Structures are given as structure tokens and as C-alpha cells.
Amino acid sequence: MDDGMIDLMTGDAILRRRLLTYAELRLSPDVATSARIRARVLAVAHRRAELARADAALTVVRDAAPTVRVVAERHRTIRRRAATALLVASLGVAAAAGTTFAAKAGGPLYQARLWAETITLPSEPSRRAVAELERLQQRLAEASQAISDGDLGAAAAALTAYASIVDSASEEAIASGDDVASAILTTGVGHNIEILSGLVSKVPDAATDAISRALARAIDRSDAAIEHIGQGGGNGGTPPTSQPAGGPYAKPTKAPQQPGGGPTSEPTRKPSTGPGSGQGGGGATGGAPDATQHPERPDKSPKPTPDPGQD
Amino acid sequence: MTLDDAAIDRLVKEARDGDAWAFGLLFDHYHLPVYRYIASRVHRPSDAEDLTQLVFVKALEALPRYEARGIPFGGWLFRLARNTVIDHVRTRHEHADLDAARGQIGREAGPDEVTVARQELDEVAEALAELTDDQREALALRFFAGLSAREAAAVMGRQEGTIRGLQFRAIATLRRRLGIELTGTADDDIADERRRRSS
Fold this sequence. Notes:
- The complex is a heterodimer of chains A (about 300) and B (about 200).
- Chain A has 9 helices and no strands.
- Chain A is an all-alpha fold and about 300 residues long.
- Chain A has a domain at about 30-55 and about 110-295.
- In chain A, helix 2 (about 30-55) crosses helix 7 (about 180-200), helix 5 packs antiparallel against helix 6 (about 150-175) and helix 5 (about 125-150) runs parallel beside helix 7 (about 180-200).
- The longest helix of chain A has about 30 residues, at about 70-100.
- Mean pLDDT of chain A is about 65; it is low at about 1-10, about 60-70, about 235-295 and about 300-310.
- Chains A and B meet through helix 1 and helix 2 of A and helix 2, helix 3, helix 6, helix 7 and helix 8 of B.
């Protein structure tokens, strides 16, 4: 980035101009792309920063040095503990298997499981958005599995839970006023719409009505959440100026209107495979603030409140 | 966004201490050249997006272990970018280097391209495709990413003179392929370049 490049194209203004034009038009990201990358990277940065602070707050308490014991007694104790642990583990596995079965989508403990998930949600907005996205993706996975298995009750339960979560998550993101959280949720839910649209074509003919309605409802709610964040929720941020109203992800795909019908439009972009997406795959788009604009730092840094108990 | 070396060092230190805001400023400073470098080396814009993100996340993770040791942060970051592209090519079993520029050919024209003859851009892409891997990489680092010859040499693990040689031959090939004859004097171009950079 220094004057060393001055000599790069010396004596060839035309070639230099053509390469510059090529770089600007063919090799440069558009505003939405830059914003998406920035939001994902910064979501990871905030998460790491918070984890680091939480780790620093932990106090390690060392056990007192063990006293000298008779070797035989120690061996007996170890054997007793091993047997007890084995027994407890066996009982635990049996109980867990039963609980897991009952907590499956549509099972008697499913609602309790959904509620339990909310207890462990982080309080910091961007991390919470990532966690909510993970919950949404779990619901999609459950719905997809249930549809494959022909378990329509489970699919409907998972899709209903999805719609409920997307509603609450968008409200939380807007209420938090956190730019990154809004961006994460907008992009993640936009991607979910593509998945939901894909699920429509997998619904068995025998059960199109109920499940397709549930799918259409989930897609509508996702659309509404994105628009909601884009309009009100902008959290004071400004959408990318080069984007149409509503932002690039305001309507990623059309919701299927006919039960059993396939997706009506191409996915808007390839799902991200980067590490950021593994943690929720958020991005700054749509009504989310323009992540390429960087106002003065309000108070040194928008550091979220440490929340050691959440991770 | 313009940052001098001292500001970059300070931001690197703050980011290493866990300051996400500082890392955001580093991202703002470097993301365009990094993206351009990657976009010049892979087929699809979606890959360039994902890999750019991956480079910065890797940088975030490796930052606690980063020590200047004569390598400026920019050089270190581009080394990460280069390794990431190489890994990507290996993983995908693609010959991205050979086809990188061709991948840009025939792409859907954006609105900005309306005013520019698309054919000209395609010609440049085709000409770039005729360069050797090393020539194209040297050109991408020097011109698309804006690194100095010394920085490009550090990124590619070559001598500075080697980079200049690669660059010289790359330009000669492009000039011949595009049918461009030398115009203006070296002094004119240096002045022109300085005007462009100062503006």
C-alpha cells in the first residue's frame, strides 16, 4: 500500500486504466456483500471478545493438596466410584433416551424443551441473535426430518415453533437496537426462507394441506420478520444506499402460495459456508444498518455485557 | 478509509486485546484489497465472499499469536488470504489459478458496466487468463490489492526482484494481448498516478 505501486504500470496509462476498471467492476464487492461480510466477521469478533472477558472473570479454585492415603483404600474407593458411576450412567442413558423421545417435535415434552431453550439464551443481542438462528435451524431440521419420516404432526409442531421463534427473535433484535443482531437475523432468516421453500416440494401428496399451510405460514412470518427489522427495526442504522427499499434481503424468495407447489424463485445467494455461518451465518443486509458506514465510536466500544454463565 | 502504519499497529494491538471495534476498523481498511485479490483467484463471487470472510475470521483467531517481526500486518493478512485460497483450490479440486480470470468472463453485467463496453472487460479477463499462475498472482497482489513489491514478495515467499520480473513479463503479455502500445512517458504516468492517489 505504498508508493511502490507507482512504478507498476509506468509508461502504460491505457493498460493501467483498463486494469483499474476491471478491478473496480469485476473484482470489487458491492455494498451489500461488504456489509454481509462485515456483519458476520464482527459478530464473531464480538462473540470472541465477550468469551475472553467471561474467561477472565472466572476464578480458578484449586483443590487442596490431597493428603497421603493408603494405596489399597484408594483402589477400593476408585472401584466403588466406578461402579456407582456406571450405574448412574446406565440410568441416565435410559432416562435420556425416554426424555429425548418425548421431547421430539410433536412429543409431549416438546413445548417444555422449547421453553428450556429460551432459558439458556445469551443476553447480549448479537450472541442472542446467533443462538436464536441456531434454534430456528434446529426447527427446520426437525421439520425436514419429520417430513421425510412422514410424521406430519411433528412437522407441523416444528414449523409452528419456528414461526413463533422467528416472531420473538425479530422483536428482540429490534428492541435491542443492536446493528449486528439485526443483520445476523435478517440474513439468517433470509436463508431459512430458501430452505423452507425447498421443503415445500418434499411434502408428501397425502398431506399437502396442513403441512403446506404450516410451511407457508413459516415463510410468511420469516418475510414479515425481515421486513419488520428493515422498517422499524433499523435500530437507527441506515440501509445501504445502493440497495432498493427494503434492502437486498427484504424478500429473498417468494413464499409458496399453492400447497404442494415448489419454490417460485431462485435462491438469492449461495448459503455461506464460512465459519461465521456456522455460528449463525448472519450478515448485514436489508433493513439492517449499513455496516460499511462507521460512525464515531460512541463510547470506546460497543462491548456487550459479560455473560459468563451463558457459554 | 486511510490508516497510517502507526494507527494500524495501534488497532492491531487493541484488536489483539479483544477489542472488536478496533478489528472492525482493520476490516474496513483491508477488506477491499483482500476481496479483490481473492476474487481475482477464484471462480465465483460467492466464493470470494466466503473466503474473504474466512480470512478475517482466521485473522481474528490468529491475532493473539501475531507478532510483527518485520512483517507488517497487511503482509501477514495477505499471507493468510493466499493460504486460504490455496486451501480452497485444493479442497475443491479446482484449478482456480488457471481459470480464475476466465471465471469472470461472460458474467452477468451489472448496472455499472452499462457505460463500459463489456467486451473490454472480457478482453482483459481473457488476457489475464493467459498469464502464468505466478505472473497473475504477482499482478493481483501488486495491482488489484495495491501491495508494494516488497510486500508482494513477502506474501509469495519470493525475492523482490523476482516479483518485479514477474510483473514486467505480465504487463508485457497483457499489452501484447490487448494490442496496447506504450503511451505517454514515465514521468507523465508517475505524475498521473500521484494525482490519482492524492485525490
